[in-house]
Write a structure and sequence with these properties.
alpha+beta, 2 helices
């Protein structure tokens, strides 16, 4: 024998089975409250890394250019030099120094380029070995990046 159930009670039972409970909704909101700040922080760090990488590449190009120009012009033996170079609308501060190398009568010529990215200071350093102007010899290059 079948009992007839009113239509409203069948729909109400079906809705209860298909809906989310308050506990499930609160658990989802708690999960989002944890995940969203972590994702935003990850995006911030990735953005900073991208900016630093782009500026570090530009600083390395500037340091290479300064070293090459100073070796060709032989003005690196005049002591410490500094200045500012602009690339892509950004200013890079550079310093060129030379020191006596301990193994041979050569000089270590170093170009250091400093820049800022999102409030932090960074530097790229390139060095090369050069013989004194007027001495015969070849120039050996040693590149280091910090």
């Amino acid at each position: 024998m079948k009992f007839a159930t009113p239509r409203n009670s069948r729909c109400a039972a079906r809705r209860r089975c298909q809906a989310f409970t308050l506990a499930e909704v609160l658990a989802a909101l708690l999960f989002l409250a944890i995940v969203i700040p972590a994702a935003v922080e990850a995006m911030h760090i990735a953005s900073l890394a991208g900016v630093v990488a782009a500026r570090k590449g530009a600083a390395a190009r500037i340091a290479d250019r300064i070293l090459n120009e100073s070796l060709v012009m032989t003005n690196w033996s005049n002591g410490t030099q500094n200045g500012t170079a602009t690339e892509g609308g950004l200013d890079f501060r550079w310093t060129l120094t030379s020191q006596t190398w301990s193994q041979d009568p050569m000089q270590v010529v170093t170009a250091e380029v400093k820049f800022s990215a999102q409030g932090k200071d960074y530097a790229v350093t390139l060095s090369t070995l050069a013989s004194q102007p007027g001495q015969l010899g070849q120039t050996a290059t040693m590149n280091t990046t910090k």
